[in-house]
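Internal tracking record. Fields below are filled automatically when a chain is submitted to the structure queue. Please do not edit lines marked as system-generated. If the sequence contains nonstandard residues, flag them in the REMARKS field before resubmitting.
Queue: standard
Priority: normal
Entity type: single polypeptide chain
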Amino acid sequence: MKKSSMIVLGAIGAVVVLAIVYRAVNRAPSADLPVNEQLEKVLADGGCASCHSANPQLPFYANLPLADNLIGQHVKDGYASFDIAPFIEALQNGTAPNEVDLAKVEQSIANGTMPLWQYYLVHWGSSITDAKEEAVLGATKELRAKYFPSPLAAPEFANEPVRPVPDSVAYDVRKAALGELLYSDTRLSADGTVSCATCHGLNTAGVDNKRYSEGIDGQLGGVNAPTVYNACFNFVQFWDGRAATLAEQAGGPPLNPVEMGCKSFDEIVARLSDDKAFVKSFNEVYPEGLSQATITDAIAEFEKTLVTPNSDFDRYLKGDKNAMTAEQIEGYDLFKKYDCATCHAGVNMGGLTYELMGQRANYFEDRELTEKSGLTDGDNGRWAQTKVERDRYRFKTPTLRNVALTYPYYHDGSVETLKEAVTKMAKYQVGREMADGEADKVVSYLNALTGEYKGKKLTNDNDK
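SYSTEM-GENERATED OUTPUT FOLLOWS
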């Protein structure tokens, strides 16, 4: 046999062997396994925790020249964008994963962005084959149906990462009535000039449309006031997540020296106690009487009433194909294409995770160049509560419900228009430049997110 023929046969044999090995190490999990175990196995085979965890298990070559910088950056970026450990733990325990985590895994597999080719070039078993992709997408769909059902949506939209706002949530009517009075009561502030409604006006979409809200004595806060509408769907409250519940959040501003300036709730109770008619009504609902716990509980019950269902988008998800324009439907498709629907998932389209501001580009560096202003305490985000370095510049994602009315945007209120907010998000969070036409379509879609309050389309008096 000629030498050239032997070389060809050897090459063919090598390819066959490699193909057999590749097929063996990339075998999809058994369909007989529960879907959470199938998904966990694909993620384990894919080596996802090698980059997306606090304690990555680096390969032996990670410290070699050239490889160290590349791998180090991949690990840093991977962990910054997504800590996969809680998600894997939920799969292993058979418990509900975070809704955003589920959407992130689903989207990264669907669009083929994970794992990085540099990784699976060396780790063959990490490749996402068609069979693995089918297993992952099937598992995420089944897990979403189990833990985050969408009964209001039409069947074709039941697996969307976003769900319609329900008409209402459970609340105590009598407590909410008291909470509504307290929400607008300036006696909760030290000088009697500021109420909850001052910064979160119900007739101004739950915000004040100022970059920073004004508290007692004209003092300005350090972050933009988020909307109170649909806040009951957030997993925590405040940009830095320092309040676990609505009631805990309601107890913050009255004692904040910049916002409402009270030394303690004792002085608030003393002022309210002078109103005998109010005390009588309050004690009928709360026999234990006025206190920080009962006051904040009442306000929290009222805030549960502030849901805004029946937006054009909600009606579209429910099956009304004429509820949105063709441009808005295209905008929604782009919204998903640009991965916006991962972090802004769920009923509230946000408020479910903390995300790094400036994932793909340095937002704060660029802001400093533009505004000639440095970092503030408000820019630290979640770090202010945890002192964990990974949490610096990480914020609770804001809701996009009624977003056309809740300008200015971002935690620092630095962005005036919705179009600018959209294009900057694409740049800083996704690492892509969005064309004007695409941005306009997404903005048109976001305008379809304005819901109804008490049966009427939500408006903003500041727009009049």
